[in-house]
Structure formats: C-alpha cells, structure tokens
Design brief:
Elements (H helix, E strand, L loop, with lengths): L1 H29 L8 E3 L1 H10 L10 E5 L13 H13 L4 E5 L1 H11 L4 H5 L4 H15 L2 E4 L3 E3 L11 E5 L6 E7 L4 H9 L10 H8 L2 H14 L8 E4 L12 E3 L8 H11 L1 H20 L8
Parallel strand pairs: 1-8, 2-3, 2-4, 6-8
Antiparallel strand pairs: 4-7, 5-9, 6-7
C-alpha cells in the first residue's frame, strides 16, 4: 500500500509541475493576443503625418510584392477576377512603383539562389500556405518594399507608408496581421524573422496551429515581441499600422479587403471561438488540470491508509 501511495504522490507531484509548466506556457501564448509592443498608428494619422511633412527620408523602396501560388495547377498563373481587380487597384494608384507577382517557380528560385540554407525547410513545409508566409518575410528582408495579400486592394498612393523603416498591420484584436507588411531591406526585425523560421518549423497536431505558429500570424507576433524585448535601447520601436474593421474603428485610408482565407479549415473556427472566450478557456483548462491531479493524489480507497 505504501508503494501505491508513494506512486500517487510522485505522480501528483509530476502533475503539479506539468500544470505549472502548462500555465506558464499558456500565459506566454495568451500575450500574443493582447497588447503588442511597438507604436500603433491609424491610417488617417499616417496620411496626416505625411501631409504635414515627413520627419526624415523615405526608407521603404517603391516595390509592391504579391504572391500567387496556384496549389491545384502551378502552371496556371491567371488570377481570379476579384484578386486581379484588387491587384490592379494597387498598380493604378501606384503607377511609378515596381510591381512583382511571385509565382511558384519564381518563388522557389529566389529562395534557392538567395537563401539556399532555407530551401529544404521551404520545400518540406506540410502546408503550401506556409511557403507563402515564409516567402513574404524573405522578400521583406532581401528587397524591402510593401507586401500585399491579393485579397487586399489599394485606395490611394502608398507613398506616406514609406517613411517607417519597418511596419506590420494590426487588426486591433488578436495577433498581428501579416497580410500587409512594409520594410527597408535587411532590417534587423526581418533578419530575426527569417532566421527564426527553422527553429519554429514544428508540426503540431492541428493544421491551423501548425500554420499559425510555425510561419503565420502567431509566429510573426511572437518574433515581433522578441525583437522589442531584445533590441538596443537606442533603436526606436517599430510601427503597427492599424487595420481594425470593427464598427467605430479608424477608417482604412490606404487599403480595402476582399475575399481571403482560402487556406483555413475547421480548426480555425474552433480557435476563433477560443479567442473570443479566452478567459473562460483558461479557467476551464486550469480546473480540469487541477481535478485530474486531485483525482490522482487522493486515494480511491481510504482503507489503503
């Protein structure tokens, strides 16, 4: 009986350590969905600052990058009509910019030539959208410019956004967005982003988690926070351009949004629910964990003592 009791104590102690570790990991994970580092600025504020006169020289080159990987037929490079229209709006409003559309072949050739050390990871991503995620970060690192998802269009010239050395978009809720990004070439943030892709390239049980945390928005947000924790005090914080679509939020001056999220599956909606009920989810997880530990530690038959 003493052996059984000792086993229960050891198992319970292990459970407590595991629960503590889990709580620490959950706390670290939850911060991805709340207050973010950096300076938030609305699109009207960007426009107003530019109209008042930029404080320094333009940092972002006049390049717009967009990616189209046809996952069913790589040889077919014809954009769906709504995406073609959105892309044309960016060309029309920024006619003196270089516009690059990266197809499957050109994308892989770029990685093979400029970042051969990453090619094996790029080729072996489980989900095709992960290659698009990784590619956009490498384009920001190598060329700089502005990356725009094909489901986003342009309302006006993007010139005012060239005066922030590196920026991301922020929907005002949850993790940061990677649908529109801006950069000067070789900014330390994008170097950190691309150098972190291999260590984060885990395959998780759920496809949505694998996509989001190995290369997508959760990964981007995690590295954003890491960059701000580790940057020199003399380096200014980076900029978050707000793209909040909720009622009452600041209007979108530069961009609009069309059909997107062609890669999502059922588990995305489960995580959407968790995101909307994060406090409840944490409480339930802790209660269940504590209940399991208690069930293990408390003898089922008091005659054992």
């Amino acid at each position: 009986m003493r052996t059984v009791t000792l086993f229960r104590v050891l198992l319970g102690a292990f459970g407590i350590i595991l629960l503590g570790t889990l709580a620490h990991r959950i706390t670290g994970f939850v911060h991805l969905f709340y207050t973010h580092a950096g300076v938030a600025i609305t699109q009207p504020e960007v426009a107003s600052a530019y109209a008042a006169g930029p404080a320094g020289p333009a940092r972002v080159p006049k390049i717009i990058h967009q990616i189209f990987h046809n996952w069913t037929d790589a040889s077919n490079e014809e954009l769906p009509a709504d995406w073609a229209g959105a892309r044309q709006s960016c060309i029309d409003t920024n006619p003196d910019w270089d516009h690059h559309l990266w197809n499957v072949e050109r994308s892989r050739s770029f990685i093979a030539k400029e970042y051969e050390w990453f090619l094996n990871t790029y080729d072996n991503y489980r989900f095709p959208v992960q290659r698009i995620d990784a590619l956009r970060y490498f384009l920001m690192r190598h060329y700089g410019g502005i990356y725009i998802d094909l489901d986003n269009g342009c309302e006006t010239s993007l010139e005012p956004l060239r005066y922030f050395p590196t920026w991301t978009t922020d929907g005002g809720q949850g993790a940061l967005s990677n649908n529109i990004l801006g950069a000067e070439p070789n900014h330390p943030y994008w170097v950190l982003m691309t150098d972190s892709l291999i260590p984060y390239s885990w395959v998780w049980p759920l496809p949505f988690v694998t996509i989001m945390y190995a290369s997508g928005q959760w990964f981007q947000t995690e590295i954003w926070e890491r960059y701000h924790r580790g940057k020199p005090a003399s380096a200014p914080p980076l900029t978050r351009v707000m793209m909040d679509y909720r009622e009452g939020a600041a209007p979108w001056t530069f961009f609009n949004h069309n059909r997107g999220e062609t890669w999502t599956g059922w588990d995305k909606y489960a995580f959407d629910w968790i995101g909307d009920h994060i406090a409840t989810t944490i409480v339930v997880a802790v209660v269940l964990g504590a209940s399991v530990i208690c069930a293990v530690m408390v003898p089922g038959d008091l005659s054992d003592h």
